[in-house]
Amino acid sequence: MSGEDVSWTPYGRDAGTEVLRSLYTGVIRFADVAEGYDPARCRRQFGYRQTIPRTMMVPKDVYRPASCSTYIVFWEGSMDQLWGNLPSHFLHIAIDSDLCEYPSEADEDYMDWYQTRSHPRIINPDSGGVSL
Known about the structure:
Layout: H1 15-18, E1 26-30, E2 33-37, E3 61-63, E4 72-74, H2 77-80, H3 95-98, H4 110-115
Antiparallel strand pairs: 1-2, 3-4
């Protein structure tokens, strides 16, 4: 598989402009479930050059009661309320300078950063662990 075989912009070329909420950065809450969301981690999907993303949001506390099969997660109070103030929590992109010239474009240091955090090779389990 090459870079040309990947759909780098599954939401369209101007997803961040047309679906502005997709650029929100913070905690998204639905009922009692809250998850961190950071579009900087997948800038390519919005048609922008991929950069090294900032550190992921970490909950204030997490625990699982013995009588429960799910975890209970606590976020900082301010993180819990970001969704109500959308404009101040959007991923701010310098539109002209950050647009990709080609779909798989990334900052100069991104691939070195990525290689230390991901699987550098795809391994076929049927081939006895031989790297492809």
